Amino acid sequence: MKNIFIPLITIIGILLSLTTVSAGLIWLERRLLALWQDRYGPNRVGPFGLFQVIADMIKIFAKEDWVPPFADRAVFILAPAIIMIAVLMSFAVIPFAPAIEVVNLDIGLLFFLAMSSLSIYSLALSGWASNSKYSLLGALRGAAQMLSYEVFMGLSLMGVVIVSGSFNMRAIVEAQRDTWFFIPQFPGFIIFFISGLAETHRLPFDLPEAENELVAGYHTEYSGIKFGMFFVGEYLGITLISALITTLFFGGWLGPVLPPVVWFLLKTLLFICVFILLRASLPRIRFDRLMSFGWKVILPLSLLNVAITGAIVLLWS
Amino acid sequence: MSSPNIIQELENRFGKGSFTTQTTKDNIPTLWTASGRIHEILRYLKTGTDRPYRMLYDLSAIDERIRNNRQGQPESDFTIVYHLLSFERNEDIRIKVPLKGEHPSIPTITDIWKSADWYEREAWDLFGIDIEGHPNLKRILLPPTWKGHPLRKEYPARRTEQGKFSLTEEEHLKEEEAQKFRPEDWGITQRGNGTDFMFLNMGPHHTGTHGIMRVMLELDGEEIVNAILDIGFHHRGAEKMGERQTWHTYIPYTDRVDYLAGSLNNFPYVLAVETLAGIDVPEKAKVIRVMLAELYRIASHLVWFGTFAQDLGQLTPVVLTFNDRERIYTITEAICGFRMHPAWFRIGGVAADLPEGWERLVKDFIDYLPPRLKEYEKVVLQNAIFKERTVWIGVLTIDEAIEWGVTGPNLRACGIEWDFRKKRPYSGYEQFDFDIPTAKDGDCYSRALVRFQEMRQSLRIIKQCMDNMPTGPYKADHPLTTPPRKERTMQDIETLIAHFLNVSWGPVIPAGEAAFGIEAAKGNNTYYLISDGNTGSYRTRIRTPSFPHLQAVPKLCQGLQIADLIAILGSIDFVMGDVDR
User: Fold this and answer.
1) The domain containing residue B88 runs over which residues?
2) What ipTM does this complex have?
3) Which of B345, B377, B493, B540 has its CA 20 to 30 Å from the CA of residue B137?
4) Domain-by-domain residue ranges, chain A?
5) Measured between CB atoms, which of B222, B309, B385 is closest to A285?
6) Is A213–B208 a contact, with Cβ atoms under 8 angstroms apart?
7) Which of A:145-174 have CB within 8 Å of B?
8) In chain A, which residues have their Cβ closer than 8 Å to the Cβ of B208?
9) CA distances from B370 to A101, B319, B363 (A)
10) CA pair distance B203, B207, nearest whole angstrom
11) Which of B114, B132, B150 is the last residue of a domain?
12) What is the C-alpha to C-alpha distance for residues A192 and A173, in angstroms, rounded to an integer?
């Protein structure tokens, strides 16, 4: 009985806190952006405007659930669910603390990569099913973007795998007891950070949305809770990438004095803020430039990183 | 700047009988000629003469049918006016063609100047003058279903004169149908090179078009094969209103033409009226005008800067520059009582003297802005992604720019130092010490650089205004000054009568014609006014810079991507009020 009960509590706990946290991120982002832009941001509902999120959620749930008549109904409804599922599934392999983890998979890292590749379907399908030109262009851009970053995203992590000798997330964290991997794997960290930005479609890589060009890109036709799922999905994605950077390059839960889970959350929060700061400061890159940058600069760099790391590890042992 | 040489030159070449000269108050050589040889003459002016008139500065029409004071001009029902500009001479020339009949026609000159395209469509749209051989003679400012040609004198200026308005469901559908894009109407096909192209309708409500404008794109993937612009959604009939309002009450309408640049719009209008009336403006009024004009130039450029960065995906600058603009509005509010549209200039001066303590406000702003500009330069103009998006995108060469009638910062970005404030100083600009920033590549980045530097130069001018503000009256002591000076009205009856008439009817400006061009925020803005000796203008022609700028966009974006189109639209800095009037 105990064997079923504890994992269930963990799963439900993680799910609930994740969705709350990512909704809370919407507030955090708005407040931080406002701070950097000499504005106030939401500050009316509840203390510091914290309940704004709840008000937004109520609004978004209460909105009419509308599917445009020209859309491909089944796929249109399915698409936003995919991104939520794919991102939430990825969290299964993240070790928040030594005792808090849904599943300790030996192929944890590969599982994450597989899930992140799946999330592109959400974007491509929503663009296709919307049957609108702006959505289609957004989806096209999304697919092109995926092609250019997915390859080096995987490669950038191979350095970590080589150094730690495992795909298991827990083992990777444990391997960082002496030095966090962002020091030996600095190029890998930078490349993963860039591809993480692309993965979550955040500025400067928010091409599939690009509201100045494509209205809202792939989710132009979405509204109500289905739009809400894309929206929360994006923030879940940010949380996921930040959590992964923490786990893979910044020693996960490791840290003195404070309890492990606090360390993990603090580090993750820091990267989330970096994501938001980037959004406040950078313009958007053009999508063909992103592709050529990916294939001509980042891919060779990440290959070089893998080769050099491999050679050093071979020589060392 | 009158030049008898060009008149003589033309008469020698085309025969003395071909032309009738007309004297105008603005001293621009004005020649009447029959429509038969207009092609030859214009072509000669563009390419034949040395120091040629290379820019078609303006093309408009006049409905002459009820004009009383024609002052010996040739018989004409409708007149087409070609206004050309020569950079080498720093001179203009005006060629007028008299046309007879209710719906006359004239050959097109689109084969001489590409920029004539929209101007001729406008003449057809608003006057019903048929342009023979025009490649695409459609309505441009009004919807395709419109009946009548509004700038004709018989067309009522007020809605209430036209009977009750109704729009049935059926008519509504018809209007919608008329808005539909049919590629074959524009001579483009869906197929080519073995691929099917996609048509994308961008606007009239789109985040990237800065107002209500529609772009119809023919796309190959994301590459733009063709772009067709549909304007006119913002058309408010500003020129028609000029014929209905008195000289004085028209001033607030001018504010709203380029609605970001406030008083800068009053400037060419009052200068043109003052040229007609022969009013000399006192020094203090001149300096107040220059100061406000430069403040509004900065305000307009700040909005442009923020929105341009926003177009490229940068979220923050737009909020910051709007904050900065707010500080300018604090100043204009203290001086004028209004923020965006102060309608502050008056015929013969400005509305009131500067308030107490204005120096402190202006000084605060002059101290405040430069560090901010430095920050923007670092964060935006020197940003690698920003450069990547703008350098060598939407390149305009000098020749192309002149061909398309491009003026202002967009022209200077191509490498030519052409600024009316230096070349044809008005309102005392010759006394100020400032530079004209230029760039050389003519791409989006150059345009951004030029405008950005202009803000610094404007600050210099404002500082000089503040340090050297003359004393004395703020409006001219002239019977046509509006509102007239009141001090002596209680002492002599003549002044009282003049005051009463000018306040109640408005001033009667002597018959004549004058155009006055200034360097507005977005380029050269000219008001061409014709007085028939009445309390209102007989014809008000507003030559705005954004109209020709926008016309060049399809050429600039060909072969580029949607993202580049947005960058180009942002970089040329237009507002739809300025395009559609």
Assistant:
1) 4-132
2) 0.82
3) B540
4) 68-316
5) B385
6) yes
7) none
8) 212-213
9) 54, 17, 12
10) 8
11) B132
12) 17
